[in-house]
Amino acid sequence: MNREKHPSAPRTGRPGIAWAIPGALFFLFFAGAPMAIVGYLSFTDWNGLSDPVWSGLDNWSRLWQDDGMRNAVWLSLLLTALTWLTQTPIVLLLGVWAAGRQRNRAVLSAIFFVPLLASSVALALLWRTIFDPNFGLAPDIADFLGLESADLLGSERGAFAAILFVTGWQFVPFHMLIYQGGARQIPRSFYDAASIDGAGTVRQFFHITLPQLRNTIVTSTVLMVVGALTYFDTVLILTRGGPGDATAIVPYLMYDTGFKAFDLGYASAVATALVVVATAASLLLVRLTGFTRMRSTREGL
Amino acid sequence: MNRTIDKRAGTAASHAPRGTRPARKPFRLPRANYAGGLGAAVWLVIVIVPLYILVASTLQTRQSYLDNGPLSLPSEPTFDAYRTVLEGDFPRYLLNTLIVTAACAAIAITLAVTVSYSIVRTRSRMSRRIFQLFLLGLAIPSQAVIIPVYLIITELQLYDTLLAIILPTAAFSLPVSVLILVGTMRDIDEELYESMALDGASQTRILLQLVVPVSRAGISTVGVFSALGAWNGFLFPLILTQSPETRVLTLGLYDFVGEFRVDIPALLAAVVLSIVPIFTAYLFARRQLINGLMGVGGR
Fold this sequence. Notes:
- The complex is a heterodimer of chains A (301) and B (299).
- Chain A has 301 residues and is mainly alpha-helical.
- Helix content of chain A is 69%, strand content 1%.
- Chain A is built from 14 helices and two strands, in the order ααββαααααααααααα.
- The model of chain B is unreliable at 1-29 (pLDDT under 50).
- Chain B contains 13 helices and no strands.
- Chains A and B meet through helix 2, helix 4, helix 5, helix 6 and helix 8 of A and helix 1, helix 4, helix 5, helix 6 and helix 7 of B.
């Protein structure tokens, strides 16, 4: 490790930056440039066929006053907050459990994994069938939850809860794995020392496991936030933003404005707002976890 | 809570010299994590009931599904639903998806390996910037740039081709791929590079004969990852293609909703068929995928 920081580290055997250029350019072309273009398009009026026409701040002032947009932002934030609040305790519990020794782990992880392997489309179709008011389980579920209507997806709260549940069902295994990986890297000696000092399981969890998982929590949180801000497939198939606009979150609104109403200039403004929020979350990730410091994961072990 | 660290945990980390591991102390038996075990049991039910519904429904006829509901046991199992799906357009969608998936994985592996190699081994401000670019890219949601990507693909005259799906999908799988590979390649010993360089090996040879073989685990993870993303991709195909000739599985499934409106067993059979290939692959590449996913979190 010290060798790398040493000023006289050998320069032989080091590849040039050229090796990174093709990949970086390819990525910039399909992700970087579009970020710039979407910003530009947000100042234009464009229907997707004719050329974009410069319209100044029109889209942005419209965005500011748009009730549909306000609703979408509120729903997105609510969904993000509830996603974090519901999923984090579950994945913390399951992830730490899975890091320990237990029998049948291979079988269990194969079962837990199916939702993660299937596409959002496939899963949304499955849940749509289950939530169907006529042929599915919706009446039973509504009964169980004490809802008045048997049509779960037809009620505003029911539809929102369904999105929250289905996306959680799909992504809990992913975050569970991240926590499992984090928990396994906690040095065993910490627990040995704690046991010798007489700390019980609960104290060990709160004083060793939880603090040691700090970076894992940050990473998982940011991934959850970015994920929840961009749930789209599930909404499109499960509720189409409805009933009314009860589940019309920001990405759905963007799709609807852009590719259904062909108001691509305005949709670009919505998209730009989405990029800003998601990028802010990403910056947070880089800052808080110190990924860029090029530390080997071995250090400290 | 858990007090044991699996010896196989994290391929990269386990190379670490830990000295001679002291013999397990006899008085310290691993304590069971009851709360976690209970949670896992509950979660098992939550996962398995819908999966049971999924499979059981496909084994019924349309009529018996409508009569008996989703929780019923198929009394006379039939594969009619699967036959209906396989006799339709499903095989063509499957072929398109296979092409897209293979192409995306190939592009992602090639580019991510070269980029990560350069990031790990080049000591320059520029390589640091490129790494930051990919880290930032982790959080760029594809929805946010779909409008300009649509514009670019149209300008390139690629609209409604498989390439229209492949190129952006591969590009968007690069950030995670680079993150994984940088993590793997960081742990290659400096001495190995030096001895190869002393032998006069070119950069290409070092890459192909040292970096690639040693990073095999990371590379398979990247392959599995990008393949999974491409297989399940929906937004790019939805916006960037249109005709049945270029339709991929996810889009096909989406269309089945209209086509099989009243034939729920057939609809769900299509869902099952879309999961089976990737699930089979997962059973073979399980360790790679899991190690890769676990590595994402860091500590």
